[in-house]
Structures are given as C-alpha cells and as structure tokens.
Amino acid sequence: MSSETPTKTPEAAAVPPSGPAPVKKVPRGHKRLLTRRDRITLGFMAGVPTVLHVALVWVTALASIALAFTSWDGIGFDSIKWVGLDNFQQLFTDNPQFWPALQHNVIWFVVLICIPTPFGLFLAVQLDKNIRFSRVYQTAFFLPVVVSLAVTGFVWQLVYNPDTGLINSLIGANKPGHYIDWIGDPHLNLWAVLIAASWRHTGYMMILYLAGLKGVDPSLREASSLDGANEWQTFKNVIFPTLRPTNTVVLVVTIIEALRAFDLVFVFNKGAQGTELLSILITNNIIGESSRIGYGSAIAVVLLVISLVVIIPYLIATFRKERSA
Amino acid sequence: MQDLSSSFPAPSRRGVLKGVGGAALLGAGIPLLSACGGSGSSSDPKTVTLGSNQSDAVPKKAYGEIYTAFTKQSGVTVKVNTKDHNTFQEQINSYLQGTPDDVFNWFAGYRMQFFAAKKLASPIDDVWDKIGGNFPDAMKKLSKGADGKYYFVPLVTYPWAIFYRKSVFAAHGYEVPTTWDAFLALCKQMKKDGLVPIAFGDKDAWPAMGTFDQLNFRTNGYDFHVELMAGKASWTDAKVKNVFDHWAEILPYHQDGFMGRTWQDAAQTLVAKKAGMYVLGTFVAQQFTNKADLDDLDFFAFPEINSAYGQDTVEAPADGFMLSKAPKNKAGATKLLEYLGTPAAEQIYLKSDTSVVAASNKADTSSYTALQKKAYEMITGAKSLTQFMDRDSRPDFTSTVMQPALQKFLQNPKGVDSLLSSIERQKKTIFASS
Fold first, then answer.
1. List of chain A residues whose C-beta atoms are within 8 Å of the C-beta of residue B7
2. In the A/B pair of chains, how many CB contacts fall below 8 A?
3. Are B260 and A162 in contact (CB under 8 A)?
4. Deepest of A173, A323, B179, B414, by most Cβ within 10 A of its Cβ?
5. pLDDT in tens, B350-361
6. How many whole angstroms separate alpha carbon A298 and alpha carbon B37?
7. Nearest-angstrom CA–CA distance, B214 and B229
8. Rounded mean pLDDT of B390-405?
C-alpha cells in the first residue's frame, strides 16, 4: 500500500537467503540473522507443510494426470501399461454414464445458482433488518450447513424412502399402482437430491450475504432514503451493487459446490440411474478390489480441466484487480 | 500481503524468517516420503493373524467360536483383525499389497483367482492334501486358481432361489412352479389376488445381477454362463438377448419402485405377506426375526426355461479363507487352514448362523433347520455351481458396467439392443486391459 522507497525491498529481502550459498559461506556459530534453532524451527514451520502440500496435492494431481494415459489395476507398479488416449476415447464414446454425469454437474450448478442463492440473499436481507428473533432464524437456516453432507443425505433418504419415507407415507404414494420412487426414478431422483442440496446451500449463501450486508456503509442507506428511494429501489440501486465482492465469492463457492458434489448423492443412491456425477464415476472406477485406476484418472482429469477452466479466469481477474489497486 | 515485508527496508532476522519460505527448506521433510513400508512386528510362532470381513454380529460371533475351538485344540492363538464388510472389499487391493494378516476371509470364484494370479496369495496344496476328502468335487473346482493350484478353503455357502411363504401359497392354493409357463401363470394369478408377485429392491444394484444369473443359466446353460462371465462369449449374442426377453416378460410382476429400495426393505414385503415370491439368497432368512415367520419361509429352485438344462445349475456363493502372499507364521496359518477345512469347524459356525450351509459334504447335517436341509440338498444335487455375477467375472466389469447397465434395462426394457452393444464394447476394453 505505502508507495515509499521500500517497493524494491521485498525482492531484495527474498533473494539472498533463498539459495543455500550464504549458509555455506558463513561458518557455524558466526553471528547470523538466524540462529541454529531458528533454522530448525523454520525447517519445520515451512518444510513440513510444503512437503505435505507437494506430496498430497501436486504429486497426486500430476500422478493422476500421468495415470490417465495408462491402464493400471493398482497392483504393483509393473502392471502400469501406457495406452495413450484410449481412456479418453472410451470415456467420450463408450461410457454410457459419462455424458449424463457431466450434464448433471452442470444442472447442479444452474439449480444452485438460480434457487438457493437468491433465496439465501433474500433471507440475508430480511435478517439484516434486525427483526425480532433474528438470531433464532439465522441459526435455523444455518443449521443444515453445520451438518455433514453424508448425514444430510441420510436424513433426506429417510424422507424420500419410497416405502416408509415421510413424503410417500403422507401422500399415500407407496401403494402398488401409484408409486413415486423418489430415489430410483431417473426423472425424479436428481431433483430430489437437489432439493436436499439446496436446503443446505441456502443457509450457506445466507451467511455469506449476511456478512456482506454487514459491511455496507449505513450512510448509503441513509442517503438513499433521504433521496426518497423505497426499499426495493434502495436494494436494487444501492445495496446490491455494493455486494459485488460477495457475489464473486458466492459464484466461485457455488461452482466449486457443483463440481465437488458427491457425498449427498453417494449416500442417497450411489449415483445410480439419473444421479450420475463425475466425482462418483471417479470413485467407482478407482476404489474397489480390482480397480481401473487409469480410467478413473482420465475422468478425474476431465473434472480437473473443467475446474481449471472455471477457476483460472477468476484467479486472473482477482490478481489483476489486486495489482492495480 | 503488503505488510509482510514493506516495513523492513533491509534484510532482518524476521524478514529472512518470512522470506525463506518453503523452498529453501523443502528438503527437511523429504525423508518422510520414503519412510513408509517395512513391517515392524516380529512373528510369534504361537499366534496367527487373521483379517476378517465378518463385521456383522451373527457371523462375527460364529467365526470367533471357531477360532476359540482351534486355539483350544492346537495352542495357537488367532488374532482377528475385523474390518467393516464393504470397507474390507474396497481396500482388499492395497491390504494384500501391504502387510496383510496371515490368513484372510475371501470369496471363491473369479475374485479368488484374480488375486491368486496376481501372486497376492499363497498356494495351499499342502492343506488340501489333508482336507481334500471333506469336500465334493464342485467345491474343489471352486477352490482352485487358474493355474490349477489350490488357493481357497471354503467354509460356508448358500444357494439363491425363489423364496415364498408356505401359508400364503396354502391360503391361495398356489403350487410351486417348475416351468417358465407355470411361473408366469402364477405371477399373473398373484397379481389378480392383490399380491406383489415378485418382491424386488435394487438400490444396491447387485440384486438384479442375481436375477440375471438365474435367467441366463436356465436359458443358456452353465457353460455359456461361465463363458459370458469370463468375457469370452459376446453380449450381443442372440442367446443373451433371449435372457433379457424372458426378463422383460416377468418385469411387470416385479415390485414397483425397486430402484429406491434395499433388499432388506423388499424382504419386509415378503415378511408382511404382501409379496408372493422373492428371488434372493438364503440370507433373506436373516430378515425373518420372528420364529413363526421363519418357520413359514420356504423356497424352490428357479423354474426351468430350456429343457436341455432343466434346473441343473444352482447359484451358491461360497465364503472361506485364503493365505496371504508372505505369511509371518506359515506353519501356524497352515494348521489353521487345515482346521477350517474340517467338518468340525463348519459345524461350530452353523450352530450360530442358520442362514447358510456347510461347504463340506462331511459336515453333520442333523442339527440343520428345515431350510438349511433343503438348501444343502439343493447344492449337493446340483450338476454345476455358479458363484454370483461379481464373483464369477471381473469385479471392475460388473461394478462399473453391469450394475448400471442392468439398472438401465430395468428402467427401460425396450432399449436392450443398444444396451447390449454398449456392454459388449465396454467389456472388450476392460477384459483387454490385463
């Protein structure tokens, strides 16, 4: 922020210690910036997380990219066979679940952004007015976010169970002849899961927007009310534009939620007909007694590419903004 | 970000601490990466370790009693390492490659042969020299790997059949159907009488595979079934189409909403006498918790479709034990396997779990329930035994291709042709992979 002389110092500070050279030159015990203990502490503070990060994020990501071009059953490294683009070719042409899975991930995103997100914003705006029992409502709407998605899936499964579930028992749709199979019917089950996902997403969005609204300068509201704007006009022309940073966060969070959608469906019906998702296809191919790790990795690479296509422009935009600020 | 360094114009202790970051000290943690592997525990000649997938209460207790009896007889303790049934299956791959227990629970058939071929199990011909006399030929065949050596000691098995309530059949005057036409007529009659003819739940995706197996070996015989499962016969063969045509005939008599129902829930409709029949393994008896209901439960073999094959094949998955690739206590493990192959061990198990029968033909059947006796007769009278689709074929093929494909068929029985060619295409690539 400060535009004084030290603009250059970050580089200057970073360059000398980055190589091992100065450590070598200076004999042990010489008065140095860093004591021996400092160096050991640093080793743990910086080294351990770095190694963990590299090993668990980068190595695995690069390994799965490499494996996507192989066929491997996961038993011994000598059974890895290079197959080139075969996995991708099979995926795009022969796998009857791939395109539905991709489509469902997109639907997942569209639904989350179109229904629970505006609803979460609506709730946040209402709660921001300091109405009575505001805290109670906040807690109630936020509760689904606190609960693990696996548990959420379990609870909703009980609601949707075709024989003994809440809905079918109430409306009597569990008799032969007029049966509603919420979990199995491929035309219904995705929407059934999406209701559960939205139920959770609303609370998440509400909290994000509530935080954003708390940051809106009260004088803006005051000014707009002095100008005679009504509540809707104030929201549309004054409040909503100031929520721009929050909207960006919401968009990114929702995209990520749509891409990583997994647990809810896995508990619900393991991604059977109608609820296939990329993440579930990956799991089904990689986990198991004789797995198709190469093929599963190929699906993972597709998911990675989609994620990058979405995330990279966002990061570029964010960094560009920061640099120009 | 900015305040990290801007306030310190020259390199300072603090600045260096910040600036060094991870890169310079990356080396510090690298040994961590290579520090895996290597089994620490030393072998104790008086202990055999055993990896168990029997996490359910009834079998866990039953197996435990066998090990106690073994310890009493031999003085060798069995240290059991029990894992959740499904988790065990999912992790079997890495479990066997890591430091597995000396002996582990597993299934007969292709699933056993696969790990034997990958050299993740030790051959146990020496054990079979001692226990060979206890088993019928069908079981011997099931216990061999593709190389002809023995790798498996079967303990228990259970047949798949059509289950029904005796009281329901008596009340309506139904007769057990032995032919396809009689079976269809019975389904029709049951529907008329307000029953669900065939209880069904395919949420877990495997029950449909059991129905397919029955239809396939009744229509095309054991040999074709085995060839199809081994990836040799073609799924686009008219014989396979014929199987699905028969399936489509009885599909309207299946319970509605099966895609969202577990097999346990489907079994409850049989318990409640709302359903007339149910195609499943004898483990369905576990759902009959009331003694009177259990006594009312009976079953019959899947009806004949092609007279050339009659009812000669029975699907009877066998569960048992294998020896890991490098057991720490080989002598003890061999002793344990020999014991597990005796009729005595099986009888101990069957006392606690009455939903299965002994794999040995030497086991004492006098304490069997009526259901067990019938199951035993069905298995010993069979000309050929099959395991189950995911035990007779590559599990990666059955779980990633067949499970969704069969579910798709059940949703849309009319699209069989394109479905079968899709299965065939996927099968070729999977079976070609290794």
1. 6
2. 205
3. yes
4. A173
5. 888 888 899 888
6. 28
7. 13
8. 90
A74 touches chain B (CB under 8 A): yes
- Other residues' Cβ atoms within 10 Å of the Cβ of residue B319: 20
Residue of B173, B182, B370 whose CA lies nearest to B288? B370
Partner residue facing B20 (CB), from A12, A42, A185: A42
pTM (2 d.p.): 0.81
Using the Cβ of A42 and the Cβ atoms of chain B, whether some distance falls under 8 Å is answered with yes
Test the B interface: residue of A3, A11, A32, A75 with most B CBs within 10 Å: A75
CB atoms A46 and B20 under 8 Å: yes
Phi, psi (deg, nearest 5) at residue A124: -65, -40
Q: Which residues of A touch B255 (CB under 8 A)?
A: 176
Q: Provide mean pLDDT across the span B47-62.
A: 88
Integer Cα distance of A272 and A269 in angstroms: 6
Name, in order, each residue with C-beta under 8 angstroms of B145's C-beta and a sequence gap of 6 or more: B112, B113, B116, B117, B123, B151
Q: Closest Cα of chain A to B432: distance in Å? A: 10
pLDDT tens for each residue of B139-174: 888 899 989 999 999 999 999 999 999 999 999 999
Q: B108: closest CA among B388, B396, B401, B394?
A: B388
ipTM of predicted assembly, 2 dp: 0.78
* Residues of B with Cβ-Cβ distance to A179 under 8 angstroms: 256-257
Distance from CA of A284 to the nearest CA of B (A): 7
Question: How many angstroms separate the first and last alpha carbons of chain B?
Answer: 52
Start-end of H helices in B21-84: 30-34, 57-74
% of chain B at pLDDT higher than 70: 90
* Spatial contact of B198 and B253, defined as CB atoms under 8 Å apart: yes
Residue A253 C-alpha, separation from nearest chain B C-alpha, in angstroms: 23
